[in-house]
Design brief:
Layout (H helix, E strand, L loop, with lengths): L3 H15 L3 H27 L5 H4 L12 E9 L12 H10 L4 E4 L27 E10 L2 E7 L5 H5 L6 H10 L3 E4 L17 E6 L7 H12 L5 E5 L15 H6 L8 E6 L4 H9 L3 E4 L6 E7 L8 E2 L3 E2 L6 E8 L7 E8 L2 E9 L4 E6 L7 E8 L11 H4 L3 E5 L2 E3 L6
Parallel strand pairs: 1-2, 2-3, 5-6, 6-7, 12-19
Antiparallel strand pairs: 1-8, 3-4, 4-5, 8-9, 9-18, 10-11, 10-13, 13-16, 14-15, 14-17, 17-18, 17-19
Helix pairs in contact: 1-2
Length: 421
């Protein structure tokens, strides 16, 4: 079918052949040039305005290795005594506990408004805030503002006071300062009372599982799917949001101490597939979406992969983005950990924010593979959630009922997402 521009050019050309005057010839020649330029601009704009045309531009980076890395587990939302409402929660107590449950990293995210943004001379200046070989510490805080809350993560100390001071500025200013400080900003409990009221264009991740109370996170997952469906590659992460320490003796339990027996550090646990055992590698992997969430430190880890050419090798994993092949893709979901032989789980695949399929899996090494064809042009994403038997967590016994039958969540595998969005 001929375009309007081509039809007009053809019409003018025929007119030129009939018109022998020099003046008329020049006028009509200029008309052709203008039409060609307009057509070129229109075509270019049609590509630029199509958010799903990224695969034509060839600007999607190559995939990283799915095997060259190390799985690290930890908690990305923990408060210490430097948050005013916190009780019985010294840093030394937190770190001892974290190591006892096998954690590899931890982020202490005290409320910055309690110290007017000066976490550097409070949390970070605490003599107990020191990294050990077995536990990586991220520098950060809970950015606590009237427009909502978000966590900051950094591998090194930074000027958090500067970031705190722009909390009431326009989002463009917030984003500029965040980038200048080289921060990873994550939206906290996006659907709760202290929701995240800033643009999601300025964050790299979103808290989709806050505390052990899984049912309270349904709206957060809905927001996450909405952001993904609109072309934003946002990593989903967990965070216990623990404020209070566990009491030692039963008769000394306070209301806050009782809460800690239902939701505490590690409920949930965020797994990170990092290139190295460093704080920077943890943040990089979190930004890239190579992460999954488990109900507690002992629950199975969810791993999600894709074989793009069905040669038997998994080319991509959760967090990865690639051009959609013009053929079916084979996906693999597997659970890793201490799993009882008789355990049975249900894997729910979510495609573009909607349930796609359910698969039962069981055994000591439960796994399922399925095949689907992503759209060749439009954006497509797949993520999974796993439900099944509760994994015992003796340190926080009440959490088992709070998480109900949720086992874990993966991050998405993406196709045709614009990396410059």
């Amino acid at each position: 079918m001929k375009s309007i521009v081509n039809i007009k050019i053809e019409h003018i050309t025929q007119s030129m052949l009939k018109n022998s005057s020099k003046k008329g010839y020049i006028v009509q020649l200029v008309s052709i040039v203008i039409l060609v330029l307009v057509g070129t601009v229109t075509f270019a704009q049609s590509i630029a305005n199509n958010p799903s045309a990224t695969h034509k531009n060839g600007n999607i980076p190559p995939l990283a290795s799915t095997t060259d890395g190390i799985w690290l587990k930890g908690d990305l939302h923990v408060h210490s005594r430097h948050s005013k409402e916190s009780t019985n929660h010294k840093l030394s107590k937190i770190f001892t506990y974290a190591k006892s449950i096998g954690f590899d990293y931890l982020a202490i995210t005290d409320h910055d408004n309690h110290v007017l943004g000066d976490v550097a001379h409070h949390t970070w200046a605490d003599p107990e805030f020191k990294e050990e070989d077995s536990l990586l510490l991220l520098y950060g805080a809970e950015w606590t503002t009237t427009r909502g809350h978000g966590n900051t993560f950094s591998a090194k100390p930074y000027d958090h006071k500067r970031f705190y001071d722009v909390r009431n500025q326009r989002d463009t200013v917030v984003e500029r300062v965040k980038n200048e400080l080289d921060l990873h900003l994550s939206a906290n409990h996006p659907s709760g009372k202290d929701h995240f009221g800033y643009s999601y264009d300025i964050v790299q991740s979103i808290e989709v599982w806050n505390s052990s109370n899984w049912p309270n996170n349904s709206n957060a997952n809905m927001i996450w799917d909405d952001m993904l469906s609109s072309g934003r590659k946002l990593t989903g992460r967990g965070g216990s949001d623990a404020h209070h320490g566990l009491a030692k003796a039963k008769d000394s339990l306070t209301l806050e101490g009782a809460r800690a027996r239902f939701s505490y550090i590690g409920t949930p646990t965020t797994w990170i597939f990092a290139k190295a055992r460093t704080a920077q590698a943890v943040i990089d992997a979190l930004t890239n979406g190579r992460a999954s969430i488990s109900a507690n430190p002992y629950a199975p880890r969810v791993e999600f992969y894709a074989d793009l050419n069905q040669d038997g090798t998994m080319d991509a994993m959760m967090g990865d983005n690639s051009k959609a092949p013009k053929k079916p893709v084979r996906f693999r979901v597997q659970l890793v950990g201490k799993i009882k032989k008789e355990s049975s789980y249900t894997v729910t695949v979510i495609k573009n924010g909607k349930p796609f399929a359910n698969y039962p899996i069981k055994g000591e090494e439960p796994m399922v593979e399925f095949t689907d064809t992503p759209d060749i042009v439009e954006r497509t994403f797949y993520r999974v959630k796993v439900e099944g038997p509760i994994t015992p967590f003796p340190q926080v016994p009440g959490s088992m009922g709070m998480s109900e039958n949720m086992v874990g969540l993966s991050n998405p595998i993406y196709f045709n997402f614009d990396p410059k969005f």
